[in-house]
Structure formats: structure tokens, C-alpha cells
Amino acid sequence: MAAFGSIHAQDTFSIVAVDSVTGEVGSAGASCVNLSFFPGYPIDFLGELFPGLGAINTQAYYLAANQQNAAERMEAGDTPEEIIDWLVANDVEGNPTIRQYGVVAFVGDGPQSAAHTGASTDDYKGHRTGATYSIQGNILLGPEILDSMEARFLAEEGDLACKLMAAMQGANIIGADTRCAGFGTSSLFAFLKVAQTDDLPGNPSLLVAVKTTGAQGIEPIDSLQVLFNAAHSCLTGTNIVNPLNDPVTVYPNPTGGTVTIHGLNPSGDDAAFMLFNLEGKQMMQVYIPTESPQYTIELGDLPSGNYVYYVQYDGRQHNGTIVIE
Fold first, then answer.
1. Distance between CA atoms of 243 and 248, rounded to whole angstroms?
2. With contact defined as beta carbons under 8 Å apart, do 20 and 53 qualify?
3. Are residues 154 and 34 located together in one domain of the fold?
4. Are residues 106 and 172 in the same domain?
5. Does some domain include residue 1?
6. Do 76 and 218 belong to one domain?
7. How far apart are CA 106 and CA 20, in angstroms?
8. Do residues 180 and 243 share a domain?
9. In this predicted structure, what is the pLDDT of residue 266?
10. Taking burial as the number of CB atoms within 10 A of a residue's CB, which of 174, 230, 237, 272 is the most buried?
11. Strand residues in the chain grouped as ranges (E)
12. Is residue 78 one of the residues assigned to a domain?
């Protein structure tokens, strides 16, 4: 991260969290910053994961040098509170009042968290912390954004990735990041990532990210959910589709322009096929009458590349990725 300079990511909401059972560490966040004007920044630049140790989100008036210092303190073994205290006392520009941080780490026998919201960050600003998480935001619609993120994170019964995605959905409100209200979205970019204990730094097992512009009118958190669903399952109970028992197949893959869906139940409800690009934008939706167990769909003139598809049928969902040549 030290290669980057500063970016005015003042309007941001995010979460860092750990799982004390699995040792996973994770980060997720969104902001109303148009990253097309900052091509050197990866979409997930606000969050840094330290496999087996913890996670840090750096936001508000973001400065890469402060983020690098935070990383060094984490790797030196400081507790989250010690990291926060050090960053406030040693801000690179001498102005911690315009910074915001969330830190969570494994300390001794359990996890700890800490946060800092500078007094000069824009309202609404604040943070929420628990033993395993820190949620923070600034220039928000109000405290309800942080409250909703926290409530959904705590209520989600899935693994750490599912809990982070639930937290992000808690902020899926037009103008959650107030500068995006005019675009009809919560934000302009969003990301989510989780590292296992044996992951290499900078290479988490799970990373999904979406970058949009205001003119597109695309809700990044909806798009993030699409990519997340294709990469990770949070389904529970009767909605689980065990790949060994799933009768539906979609072929050929790669395809030259048509796909055939096989294995639908002719006596079941009508099905639907949906196709999304890797930015989470829906490219097509086709309703499928299930009089027969097989249905062929023309994909039209879609550009070559990778896509995510969903087949909804009989109250269940089959999803995967497909390559259009």
C-alpha cells in the first residue's frame, strides 16, 4: 500500500472482523468515490488483511503512509487499542482529526477491536465495536446506517464472509453515503474479502469487488451480492442445492452464443435464467416454462468474457460462471 498517496475517501462505511473459531480475518466497505479517476488504486485499498493476525480499515482522509504505519504496528504485535493510540499520536500529517480507522486482531486467547473517528471527519460519523468486529463510517445518512450494519452482522448465522456480506446489505440504502443520494445509490464502489490463516498476505481466499460511476446508476452492494453469491454460499435449510444432488446443468461452457439448461422439473414451477457480468450488472433475464426438462437460450451479441449465471427453479437456485467466446 505504500505505493499509493492520498485519496479523499471521506464518505465511507466499512467493517473489519475476525472469526475466533476458524481464525479467518475479513474486511468489507464501500464509498462514494469514483475510482475511475484514481486508476492506481485497487477497489479494496481501504482494507488490509493480516492472515492469522487481524485486519485494518483506513478511511476518511485516506493517507497510504498512515495505512503503512498501521500495518507495521499490527505486524509488530500491538493490540488494536495500541495501534489506534500510535496512529493518533503519530499521524503523518499531524492531523488525526480527519482520519478514521477500524482495527481488529487476535490478542492472547481472544479477539479485540478498536476504532478511531476523528472529530473533523464529516457528519454523520461514528463507529460501533464488539469483540470480533469494528464498523465505522463518515458523511453518512445517519447513525441508522452503522446500527443496521451491526445488527445484520450479529444476526447472520453463517461464516465470516456471510456475516460481512450481511453487514454490507445493512447499508444498502440510497444515500447511505450521502454524496451518492443524487445517483440513487448507496455508494460507487464496494468490496469484501476474507483471508484464511494459511493465505499469503495480499492474496485472500475470497475477494469480490465492484467499481461503478455515478452515471451508471448501478447499486454496488447489489452487484457485490451477485459476485459474492457466485463465489460463496450462505444458503441454509431447504434452499441448499447440494452439487451432488443438483439436477440442473448449463452447457456448453465455454459457449459460442447459446446455452442449454437441462434437468428442470417439467411438473414444477416456471424457472428463470439470469446472466450478470463481473461488475454485477444484469445482462439478461429469461423466464423458462418448464413443460420440458430442457431449454435452450440465445445469448445474443454479448461481448466475449466471463459471466455469472443463476437458474432459479422450484424454490431453489443453481449458479455458476460461464465463458462466452
1. 9
2. no
3. yes
4. yes
5. no
6. yes
7. 8
8. no
9. 63
10. 230
11. 6-9, 12-18, 25-31, 47-50, 54-63, 99-107, 110-117, 126-130, 133-138, 189-195, 206-211, 249-251, 258-262, 271-276, 282-288, 294-298, 305-313, 316-324
12. yes
Task: In whole angstroms, give the CA distance from residue 44 to residue 209.
Answer: 7
pLDDT digits (tens, 9 = 90+) for 49-85: 999 999 999 999 999 999 999 999 999 999 999 999 9
Q: 96 in helix, strand or coil?
A: helix
The boundaries of the domain holding residue 123 are 6-231
CA angle 70, 159, 234 (to 5 degrees): 130
Q: Can you list the alpha helix ranges (DSSP code H) found in 76-133?
A: 80-89
Q: Which helix (H) or strand (E) holds 153?
A: helix 143-155
Query: Is residue 95 a part of any domain in this protein?
Result: yes
Instruction: Output the domain CATH number for residue 136.
Output: 3.60.20.10
φ and ψ of 148, to 5 deg: -70, -40
Query: Is residue 114 situated within a structural domain?
Result: yes
By CB neighbour count within 10 A (0-12 exposed, 13-18 middle, 19+ buried), where does 316 fall?
Answer: middle
**In what side-by-side order are the strands of the sheet with 25-31?**
126-130, 133-138, 12-18, 25-31, 189-195, 206-211
Low-confidence ranges of the chain (pLDDT < 50): 1-3, 236-244
What is the total residue count of the chain? Answer: 325
DSSP, collapsed to helix, strand or coil, labels residue 90 as: coil
> For the segment 104-129, what is each residue's pLDDT rounded down to a tens digit?
999 998 999 999 999 999 999 999 99
Whether residue 160 is found in the same domain as residue 289: no
Q: CB neighbours of 98 closer than 8 A, spacing ≥ 6?
A: 60, 61, 118, 120, 121
